[in-house]
Write a structure and sequence with these properties.
There is one protein chain. The protein has helices at about 5-20, 40-45, 130-135, 145-155, 160-165, 175-185, 200-215, and strands at about 25-30, 50-55, 60-65, 65-70, 80, 95-100, 105-110, 115-120, 260, 265-270. With about 280 residues, the protein is of the alpha+beta class. It has 2 domains: about 5-135, N-terminal domain of MutM-like DNA repair proteins; about 145-270, Helicase, Ruva Protein, domain 3. α6 (about 175-185) packs across α7 (about 200-215). The chain is elongated. Mean pLDDT is about 90; it is low at about 220-230.
């Protein structure tokens, strides 16, 4: 599933193309995504210029004069920049095209768990949209700190890994990056969140930032379907300390990496390095 690094990589690849450019038309071939594509999206966006592109958590926000179209990549979604001659024969899972004058922005999603939604300017700030309003803080923002993690975890019995995945405190720390961040911080993923000390929460906040930044630098992680806007795969998975390395020696101490299941998701950790 594309997580924050993959969405950030996608945004950085798309933004130079679309900002300040006008949408000539929109072709919606499939409207049955996670939520139905708004039936009037094509009419609404015709001849609208994209002011800017931003990311909030795992959502991409494309601002126009009339409002914002919001894109979530779901589990298998991608956004690609294509030349017009590359976009002539859309494949089965190529669901939506935004046609600009010199290129096409194409949304592809084999499993159709993603979403393309609309938030009219008359409805107010896009960050007040129901899908965005309850999100945790951004990991690279000033509001994210070890003290915040410590304060928000007091009395919580859920494991620290599950709390990271929930996105209530900080957004974008998906399954790969939760395991990697906890390894860097030296915290056992099964530790109840409320038992993690302030000093360890501070290490965790640093580790989250470092892990996500490293993943963005490597173009994200490609395990199955993810590619960036230029079609390139990500390579962070090659640098993982623990994720998907069950039985392999820890890159730090040499002990075998262990695998368990938490909340129906695989967790990887080193029993020696993570106490």
């Amino acid at each position: 599933m594309p997580e924050l690094p993959e969405v950030e990589v996608t945004m950085r690849g798309i933004e130079p193309y679309v900002t300040g450019r006008r949408v000539e038309r929109v072709d919606v071939r499939t409207n049955a995504l996670r939520w139905p594509v708004p039936p009037d999206l094509a009419r609404t966006l015709a001849r609208q210029a994209v002011r800017k592109v931003e990311r909030r958590g795992k959502y991409l926000l494309f601002e126009t004069d009339a409002g914002w179209f919001i894109v979530h990549l779901g589990m298998t979604g991608t956004l690609r920049i294509l030349k017009p001659d590359q976009a002539l024969d859309p494949a089965k899972h190529d669901h939506i095209d935004w046609i600009f004058d010199e290129f096409v922005l194409r949304y592809r999603d084999p499993r159709r768990f993603g979403a393309v939604l609309w938030h009219a300017r008359a409805a107010g700030d896009v960050l007040a949209h129901p899908l965005l309003a309850s999100l945790g803080v951004e990991p690279f923002g000033d509001a994210f700190s070890g003290e915040l993690v410590f304060r928000r975890t007091r009395g919580r019995t859920a494991s620290i890994k599950q709390l990271l995945l929930a996105g209530e405190v900080v957004v974008g720390v998906g399954n790969i990056y939760a395991s990697e961040s906890l390894f860097r911080a030296g915290i056992r993923p099964t530790t109840p969140a409320g038992r993690v000390s302030l000093a360890r929460c501070e290490r965790l906040a640093v580790a989250v930032r470092e892990t996500l930044a490293a993943a963005i630098e490597r173009g994200g992680s490609t395990l199955r379907d993810f590619v960036g806007s230029d079609g390139a795969s990500g390579y962070f998975q090659l640098d993982c300390f623990v994720y998907d390395r069950a039985g392999a020696p820890c890159r730090v101490c040499g002990a075998p990496i262990r695998q368990i299941v938490q909340g129906q998701r695989s967790t990887y950790y080193c029993a020696h390095c993570q106490r």
